[in-house]
């Protein structure tokens, strides 16, 4: 469809923000290609039935992201594409109102897959962006007061007064009144529900209080007995808190001892430090004194040697002088004796000479044997060293082989360990589980660091004997749960989590389970066996694990609600699930069946069947191929080790043989050497004897006579005495020369001894101080352990006391009334217990009801107070919202009523718009309504507009005039009304049209599209009215259509937009 601008009169007026400027269609419903150029005021779209007027409404709705159901026509997008075409398009241009640029929205429809694509100003967009733009322009396609297509005219006429009020509020401004109204409706509903709840609570509270009046003496006995029991509990609490106080005193004493031990350790450390500091200078002094002593000692030794030589020489001179003196004394002895002496000496000389000859020289055989033995010793020594070196090399290789064998055996041991296999499988299964084995080994080594036993990972704590059970467990428990470490105290949990974070990159999750691990896994009313269907156990009963581990698995995977079935169970599975609705999971040899119940409807159940998986890690027994490979490696390593041991044994044997040869050669060599040394020593002795005999013989032979000999001896004696005196004086001079050196050496030795003594004393003192410090440190460590133990016991006592008897002012007041001594307190508890046991409650049920009623009354009174406060807050909020909403709504309705009444008066009838429900339903805001009252005849009164009193034409007139009246209060950019004038008589239609033209001519009124198949002749038009005539059909000629439209424009006096098919 094409539109051409009129050339006769210029157009006036401006487009409001959000109004429509152009609608362009292609392959849409009955149009191959069409375009409508709208004007800012009243646009009348005129055309016979079947020309596609309502198609423009459909295009406008779909082009602005409206839902197809708003049209009351087809729901699928493909139904709006021209038949036989693959796709169509709608393009809508929206005015920016001068505030911003115009927006062009284009929607491409695809009939093949029933989808569409969007563009805004030729840029790709989404439906959400189009809806956001539509909301910003205040376009409300779901509001019948703004967008009234042909197929929903009847729906608008049937709107109830309450719905009409909501639709009117939506059309006003930014829908603020509608939102406030809906909020008030919700608040009013909540207020009524609150009052109903309070009434029910008050009724229940009165009933509970009334029942308290029928208890009598039993209640009094019960109260007395309860009072005694409370006193007993207070006495027990005091006793337990007294134990806590005693532990606090004990801890304080231990801490005082600890401080004293710390001071003792510090003092011992100071003393040791002082002793150690005194040792260093003494050591330095001792080194200096030792050097000084060594220097003087060497000088003294030199002097001693010189003096010794002088002494020896003097001794020789003395001996010689003694000989001369003896010679003088014996000078007169008989010459015969001298001859005898000469003869004796000659015989002795001859004998010694003969013996020396018999000993002879070193034999050549000795040299040969010694050379042979030297070579033999050298060769044997070389061989022994070679064998020893080879033994060392073999020993190193053997040590490496032994370590290699031990490493392989460790690996085999770990691979044969089921726990290791399971953990390693999980590590390889997911990267997030890496480090799990390292964490497990760390926990096993450091169990002593925790207060209670740490379990985990859970895969290592489970013992499964059957493959089906293992498969059920792996199929039921999530994989990450098997990596949990379970602690039994919060302190252990924090410590383990910190250690794993510090030492390992990953290492699994830590879960603290500090509940009762012996608690039953099954509820009291749950059956663990269903024999009629072949079920004998639940999953938690068919494997072994610590109680805490089972509790964790049950909390994460509900193993106590998983039933283990047989093939018999599998055959009657459907019957089982129909008969037993409490069964949610069944494991059979072939499949695992899970039953899911809808959250939104308890009757909706779905069954999920999946094949039972093969067990992956709970049935692992060994490492498979890797174990075989390691066993082969172990056999090879053991063979290498045996070979090395054999080599080592051979080298040891060769070494022993070489050692024996070396020892034998050395022994023989030593024997030869000793023999030669003996011969040499004998020769030296004989030579000395020969020289001595010769010297004596020479002296004896010099004696010619006794007289001559005496003279010679006398002369020799005098000469010797002179020499001896000179030597003595020389010796004395030497002694005086070396005397200061001896004195210095004595002083140095004395200083060294004194320093050594002081050093020994300091060293002994430091050692003693070190021992003393260690003793104090040991005592300190013992006291530290005692303090930690006392702190732990105090924490446990405080925790138990806080758990059993939390302190309060009331309890402390009771403590002051009770005995302080432990024995008196025990006697008091025993006496009070006997007194309480002596009170008999004749009707225990009455006492129980009384206690229950007290709790009920307390709870209901608390609920009533809370509900009252909530109701007050709610009513205050309702009053605030009502003050914000109702005055504005009254003004709007009053303004609509004024315009509506004026418009009805102009057509000769009476009409009124009222706000109903304000007086009858003060807080029922969902019953507030807008009533339209009309009177079309003089003899009638104002009556509400409905389908039973007025005709269809009258309802159309009232609806159209109400829509016109909304223009004064609405801020919608445009309004679409499709064939609203159908059913009106000519008179009313003319009057309504005049009203529509008049309102469209007013400034500030929204753009309006009136779609109709016909118009009455001689209607009144203005420049604000634009008539779009549709000429669409297979037999319409373009020229005829143009001529007819020009004649129509002349007759009507308004601008006619010509439209012909393309």
From TrEMBL:
Main localization, broad class: nucleus
GO molecular function: ATP binding; single-stranded DNA binding
GO terms under biological process: chromosome organization; double-strand break repair via homologous recombination
UniProt-listed SUPFAM superfamilies: P-loop containing nucleoside triphosphate hydrolases
Coiled-coil residue spans: 244-275, 627-703, 847-884
RecF/RecN/SMC N-terminal domain mapped to chain residues: 20-1000
Cellular location(s): Chromosome; Nucleus
A family per Pfam: SMC_N
UniProt entry keywords in alphabetical sequence: ATP-binding, Chromosome, Coiled coil, Nucleotide-binding, Nucleus
One term under GO cellular component: nucleus
Family per similarity comment: Belongs to the SMC family. SMC5 subfamily.
Name the UniProt record assigns to this protein: Structural maintenance of chromosomes protein 5
């Amino acid at each position: 469809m094409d539109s051409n601008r009129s050339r006769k009169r210029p157009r006036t007026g401006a487009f409001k923000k959000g109004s429509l400027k152009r609608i362009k269609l292609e392959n849409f419903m009955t149009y191959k290609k069409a375009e409508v150029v709208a004007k800012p005021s009243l646009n009348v779209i005129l055309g016979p039935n079947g020309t596609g007027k309502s198609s423009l409404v459909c295009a406008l709705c779909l082009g602005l992201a409206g839902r197809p159901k708003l049209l009351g026509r087809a729901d699928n997008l493909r139904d709006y594409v021209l038949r036989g075409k693959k796709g169509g398009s709608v393009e809508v241009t929206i005015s920016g109102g001068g505030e911003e640029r115009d927006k062009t929205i284009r929607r491409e429809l695809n009939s093949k897959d029933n989808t569409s694509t969007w563009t805004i100003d030729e840029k790709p967009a989404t439906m959400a962006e189009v809806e956001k733009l539509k909301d910003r322009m205040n376009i409300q396609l779901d509001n019948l007061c703004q967008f009234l297509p042909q197929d929903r005219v009847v729906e608008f006429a049937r709107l109830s007064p309450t719905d009409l009020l909501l639709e009117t509020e939506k059309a006003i401004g930014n829908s603020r009144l509608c939102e406030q109204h809906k909020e008030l409706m919700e608040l009013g509903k909540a207020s009524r529900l609150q009052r109903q709840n309070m009434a029910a609570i008050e009724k229940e509270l009165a009933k509970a209080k009334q029942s308290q009046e029928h208890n009598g003496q039993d209640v009094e006995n019960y109260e007395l007995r309860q009072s005694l029991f409370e006193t007993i509990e207070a006495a027990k609490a005091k006793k337990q808190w007294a134990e806590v106080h005693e532990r606090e005193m004990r801890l304080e004493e231990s801490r005082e001892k600890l401080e004293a031990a710390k001071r003792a350790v510090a003092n011992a450390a100071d003393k040791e430090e002082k002793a150690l500091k005194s040792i260093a200078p003494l050591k330095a002094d001792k080194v200096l004194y030792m050097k000084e002593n060594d220097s003087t000692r060497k000088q003294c030794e030199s002097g001693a040697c010189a003096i010794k030589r002088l002494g020896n020489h003097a001794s020789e001179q003395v001996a010689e002088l003694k000989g001369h003196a003896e010679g003088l004394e014996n000078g007169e002895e008989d010459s015969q004796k001298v001859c005898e002496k000469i003869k004796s000496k000659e015989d002795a000389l001859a004998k010694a000479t003969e013996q020396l000859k018999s000993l002879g020289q070193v034999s050549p055989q000795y040299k040969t044997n010694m050379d042979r033995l030297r070579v033999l010793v050298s060769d044997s020594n070389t061989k022994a060293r070679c064998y020893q070196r080879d033994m060392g090399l073999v020993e190193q290789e053997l040590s490496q082989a032994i370590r290699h064998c031990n490493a392989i055996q460790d690996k085999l041991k770990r691979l044969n360990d089921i726990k290791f296999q399971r953990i390693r499988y999980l590590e390889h299964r997911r990267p997030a589980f890496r480090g799990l084995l390292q964490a497990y080994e760390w926990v096993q080594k450091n169990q002593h660091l925790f207060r209670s036993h740490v379990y985990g990972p859970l895969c290592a704590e489970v013992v499964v004997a059957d493959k089906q059970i293992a498969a059920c467990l792996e199929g039921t428990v999530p994989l990450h749960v098997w990596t949990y470490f379970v602690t039994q105290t919060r302190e252990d949990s924090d410590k383990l989590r910190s250690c794993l974070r510090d030492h390992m990159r990953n290492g699994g999750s830590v879960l603290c389970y500090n509940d009762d691990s012996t608690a039953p896994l099954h509820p009291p009313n749950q059956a663990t066996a269903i024999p009629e269907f072949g079920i004998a156990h639940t999953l938690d009963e068919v494997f072994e694990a610590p109680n805490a581990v089972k509790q964790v698995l049950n909390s994460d995977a509900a193993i106590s609600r998983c039933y283990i079935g047989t093939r018999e169970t599998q055959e009657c599975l459907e019957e089982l699930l129909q008969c037993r609705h409490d069964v949610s999971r069944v494991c059979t040899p072939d499949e695992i069946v899970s039953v899911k119940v809808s959250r939104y409807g308890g009757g909706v159940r779905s069954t999920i069947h999946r094949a039972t998986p093969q067990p992956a890690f709970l049935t692992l027994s060994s490492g498979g191929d890797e174990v075989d490979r390691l066993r082969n490696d172990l056999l090879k390593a053991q063979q290498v080790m045996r070979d090395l041991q054999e080599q080592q044994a051979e080298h040891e044997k060769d070494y022993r043989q070489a050692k024996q040869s070396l020892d034998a050669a050395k022994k023989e060599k030593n024997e030869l050497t000793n023999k030669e040394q003996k011969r040499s020593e004998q020769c030296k002795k004989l030579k000395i004897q020969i020289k001595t005999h010769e010297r004596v013989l020479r002296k004896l032979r010099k004696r010619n006579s006794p007289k001559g000999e005496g003279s010679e001896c006398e002369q020799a004696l005098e000469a010797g005495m002179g020499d001896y005196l000179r030597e003595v004086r020389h010796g004395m001079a030497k002694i005086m020369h070396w005397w200061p050196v001896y004195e210095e050496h004595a002083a140095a030795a004395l200083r060294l001894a004194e320093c050594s003594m002081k050093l020994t004393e300091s060293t002994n003192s430091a050692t003693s101080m070190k021992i003393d410090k260690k003793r104090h440190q040991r005592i300190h460590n013992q006291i530290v352990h005692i303090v930690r133990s006392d702190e732990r016991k105090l924490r446990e006592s405080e925790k138990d006391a806080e758990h059993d008897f939390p302190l309060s002012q009331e309890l402390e007041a009771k403590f002051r009334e009770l005995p302080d001594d432990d024995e008196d307190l025990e006697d008091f508890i025993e006496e009070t217990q006997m007194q309480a046991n002596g009170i008999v409650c004749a009707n225990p049920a009455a006492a129980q009801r009384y206690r229950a009623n007290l709790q009920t009354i307390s709870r209901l009174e608390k609920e009533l107070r809370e509900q009252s406060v909530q109701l007050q807050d709610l009513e205050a909020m309702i009053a605030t919202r009502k003050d914000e909403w109702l005055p504005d709504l009254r003004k709007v309705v009053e303004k609509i009523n004024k315009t509506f009444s004026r418009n009805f008066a102009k057509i000769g009838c009476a009409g009124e718009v009222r706000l109903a429900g304000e007086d009858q339903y003060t807080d029922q805001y969902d019953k507030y309504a807008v009533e339209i009252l009309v009177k079309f005849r003089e003899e009638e009164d104002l009556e509400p507009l409905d389908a039973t009193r007025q005709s269809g034409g009258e309802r159309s007139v009232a609806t159209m005039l109400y829509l016109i009246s909304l223009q004064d209060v609405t801020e919608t950019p445009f309004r679409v009304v499709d064939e609203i004038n159908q059913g009106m008589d000519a008179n009313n239609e003319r009057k309504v049209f005049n009203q529509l033209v008049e309102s469209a001519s007013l400034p500030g009124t929204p753009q309006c599209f009136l779609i109709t198949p016909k118009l009455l002749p001689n209607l009144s038009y203005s420049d604000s009215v634009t008539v779009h005539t549709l000429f669409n059909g297979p037999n319409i000629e373009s020229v005829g259509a143009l001529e007819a439209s020009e004649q129509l424009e002349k007759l009507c006096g308004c601008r006619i937009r010509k439209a012909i098919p393309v």
